[in-house]
Design brief:
Layout: H1 6-18, H2 23-39, H3 41-53, H4 69-81, H5 83-91, H6 107-130, H7 138-152, H8 161-178, H9 188-194, H10 207-228, H11 239-242, H12 246-259, H13 263-269, H14 272-278, H15 287-294, H16 299-309, H17 316-328, H18 338-349
């Protein structure tokens, strides 16, 4: 599977779905309506008065940015919240001109906005979870996308035509951009999911797919362990053994023979992957904290976990840093010392 920013891929998928009719028409009408209130101080003041009269939260309308799908979601959500105060202002002849009363959304538009917000709401949560700075997110990417597709985006009889069309388009875009219809058992996302105790059961796979995924992770852990292990010559003799009397060596051999556990039983007992998959230890603070506590129990798998969980699923955190640094370092502050820039960036990020 292609390595890409999850948030960027999600954005492309949702933007494609929002361009379908009648959703794009509803969004265009909502932009015109919000733009009217943003430009008219009289309309904004009247809206606040109507909010107090109708006991509605005194929130301002939100103007969306066409390149940010989440802003479109928040615009529609806020409009739905403020529907009746907005309608009251537009229908008041003392506030709104006759030529501007047609800016109010039609009943069909309001229904479309309601359907769109209902479908996109879990996508907002998904994006926020995967954009967090301090939590490992790669392992949660495909499990969340697959569950989103199989549970939230499944078509139901009670869905409106708009909802069905939006769900169908989103599911198609997710399949295309994340290649969910292909064999993804060897994907880096699935490997990370196996090494996340929250998703290791891979409940969204059948038995054959699970076995393939587990085999891939087992091979990765073995290869990393082999790379990390120092090369040793079994025929060489250590300095301590070189001058050791022969009787003492024989005694150690006898003790080792008496204390040894059967080789096959020992190997079976130490099968890390089987033990890990059977482990019922709960995850309280995310996979990183879990592996920090249990690294000694699964040393080989821990190496693979370190390799995978350090990979962010999205470039959002780094983009935030660059954006904040751009606001801090500008022409009027070009004399800032590097140390001060680091401190200012760190304080803004925290």
């Amino acid at each position: 599977m292609r390595r890409a920013s999850v948030v960027r891929g999600t954005r492309y998928s949702i933007n494609a779905a929002l361009k379908t009719d009648p959703i794009c028409q509803c969004i265009a009408a909502a932009r015109r309506l919000v733009g009217h209130f943003k430009k008219s101080t009289k309309a904004t003041t009247a809206l606040t008065h109507k909010q107090k009269q109708q006991n509605v939260a005194e929130h301002k309308l939100i103007q969306d940015v066409s390149t940010r799908w989440n802003s479109t979601y928040f615009m529609l959500e806020r409009l739905l919240e403020q529907r009746w105060p907005v309608t009251a202002v537009l229908s008041d002849p003392e506030i709104t001109k006759r030529s501007e009363r047609g800016l109010d959304l039609t009943t069909a538009h309001w229904l479309t906005a309601d359907d769109t917000v209902a479908v996109l709401k879990p996508m907002i949560t998904l994006t926020e979870l995967l954009s967090q700075d301090l939590n490992a997110s790669l392992s949660a990417t495909l499990p969340m996308l697959i569950n989103m597709k199989r549970r939230h985006l499944v078509l139901r009889n009670e869905d409106s035509p708009t909802t069905k069309a939006l769900k169908t388009e989103l599911a198609k875009e997710i399949d295309t951009r994340w290649q969910l219809t292909e064999n993804i058992t060897t994907s880096i996302y699935i490997q990370a999911a196996v090494l996340d105790p929250r998703f290791k059961s891979l409940s969204f796979f059948d038995q054959h797919e699970r076995e393939d995924a587990y085999s891939t992770v087992s091979d990765l852990a073995e290869s990393l362990s082999t790379e990390a292990a120092p090369e040793s010559d079994h025929d060489s003799i250590s300095p301590a053994e070189e001058g050791e009397p022969e009787p003492k060596k024989e005694k150690q051999a006898e003790i080792s023979m008496l204390m040894a556990i059967d080789e096959e039983e020992h190997a079976e007992e130490k099968d890390e992957l089987k033990m890990y998959l059977a482990d019922k230890t709960k995850v309280h603070s995310g996979p990183l904290a879990w592996w920090q506590k249990n690294e000694h129990r699964y040393p080989k798998l821990a190496k693979a976990a370190k390799r995978l969980h350090c990979i962010p699923s999205t470039s959002t955190p780094s983009e935030r840093i660059f954006s904040k640094a751009g606001f801090i370092v500008n022409k009027s502050r070009s004399s800032l010392l590097p140390n001060n820039v680091d401190k200012l960036c760190s304080s803004h990020i925290i």
